[in-house]
Amino acid sequence: MNFASIQRESISAVVGMLVERAMSDQPVKFDREFDVERRWAHVTGTTGRFVQFNFTVADPDLSVELVLPYEAFKEFCASNEASLSIEPLAMAPFERLKWLHKDASGEISKTATQAK
């Protein structure tokens, strides 16, 4: 079992536990569709070799702030099939970090969209 599969299983377990807990206390009604397969990684900054980002599952109100080394961040996004967005002020530092990892033309830059 690799790091990415452990992360994916852990995230699924946490989401399942949160949904189960919410449903057991009282029924929860959502204004919109709650699809746990929808995931986003929103880069908010970089510190040294680390990427700071918010990871969201299913609903924009359900997110967690994370910090991972760049290579682990790439693996995390790929294994979770997360859509990537980058805060405008974080764009240049993030591109520099990609360049330092010789990933200036990698997968992340193809899917990245600038946050509005």
TrEMBL record:
Organismal lineage: Bacteria, Pseudomonadati, Pseudomonadota, Alphaproteobacteria, Sphingomonadales
Domain of life: Bacteria
Keywords assigned by UniProt, alphabetized: Hydrolase
Protein name: Phenol hydrolase subunit
One MF term in the entry's GO annotations: hydrolase activity
Species per Swiss-Prot/TrEMBL record: Sphingobium phenoxybenzoativorans
Pfam family, one: Phenol_hyd_sub
Encoding gene, per UniProt annotation: dmpK
InterPro entries, per the entry: DmpK (IPR010353)
